[in-house]
Amino acid sequence: MLTLENFKTDVNDDIKRLLKQFQQIKDMNWVKSKRKGTTGIGYTFECLLNKEEENLEIPDFGAIEIKTKNFYSRGKIELFVATPDGDSLFAIQSLRERFGYPDKDMPKYKIFNGNVNGKNFSPIGSRYFFKLIVNREMKKVSLLILDRDYRVADNSISWSFDLIKEKLLRKLKYLAVVNAYQKSMNQELYYKYEKIDIYQLISFDKFIDLIEEGIIEVTFTIGVFKSGKRTGQVHDHGTEFVIYEKNLPKLFFKIA
Predict the structure, then answer these.
(1) What's the rounded Cα separation, in Å, for the pair 193 and 189?
(2) SS3 158
(3) Could you give the CA distance from residue 241 to residue 80 in angstroms, rounded to a whole number?
(4) Which of 17, 116, 228, 229 has its CA at 20 to 30 Å from residue 137's CA atom?
């Protein structure tokens, strides 16, 4: 039977194994990227862990989710992807069609790219303002959309607390952030994995508080396919809940 004490022991074993393997990778010094592009830093680290690439919504290493980033980057860290599950059918497609703006390369098609938070209204495009609204009574986070005259244009798109909690607790009870230096040499990219920090989630309630405070944001990246048979169709790169690295201590305890 898996008790809480056994679970903690399993997590401690995962932490010990990860720290040991990280030290071995760090001792390798500069490592050639195994993939071109921005995903190379994470993919190369996974390869060095002897981990196969997969897109399952489970932690990367035992009970630990791993995020790998450039040492000097102070940008946002993706926590998880969650498509709205509220009353609005085909919410992502609706956002693009109703509230999107013309793609710069293919103006006859609309896109919808931007960040939304729970503290301030954010303009996306030139006609609408967006804000996350935490409704504790209804147990959901809604996307409030106002037009330029500050009239409600839509508020039917939302994420249930149940969806957010399930995503958060399944994938992010424990988080490891790996920082690496990078350099180019002979037209090839190399990484030096230098630092690892391991965190434990404070609580789901804290996550909701941070949405309300504007610390955790939602990033929309809704484009269109620009070639092939699917030209003009929705290309949803994922609706992500994100946080700046500097704010991680507001959501997690650092444990290693």
Answers:
(1) 13
(2) strand
(3) 6
(4) 116
List the chain domain ranges: 4-72+172-200, 80-164+205-249
Fold match between 4-72+172-200 and 80-164+205-249? no
pLDDT higher than 70, residue 3: no
Please give the Cα distance from 216 to 213 (Å, whole number): 8
Cα 90 to chain center, whole Å? Answer: 21
Q: For the chain, give the percent of residues with pLDDT over 70.
A: 95
Amino acid at 114: G
To the question of domain 4-72+172-200 being in CATH 3.40.210.20, the answer is yes
**Tokens 């990033």 sit on residue:** 219
Structure tokens at 171: 């994938």
Name the CATH superfamily housing domain 80-164+205-249.
MvaI/BcnI restriction endonuclease, recognition domain (3.30.70.3570)
Q: Which amino acid is at 53?
A: E
- Angle of CA points 119, 136, 132, to nearest 5°: 30
Q: What kind and span of H or E run contains 221?
A: strand 216-224
Rounded to the nearest 5°, which phi and psi values hold at 105? -90, -30
Q: What is the pLDDT of residues 129-185, one digit of tens each?
A: 999 999 999 999 999 999 999 999 999 999 999 999 999 999 999 999 999 999 999
| Token pair recorded at residue 44 | 């190369």
Residue 221 near residue 237, CB atoms below 8 Å: yes
One-letter identity of residue 25: I
Here the tokens at position 47 are 């390869």
What's the alpha-carbon Rg for the chain, to the nearest Å?
20
Give Cα 129 to chain centroid, integer Å: 22
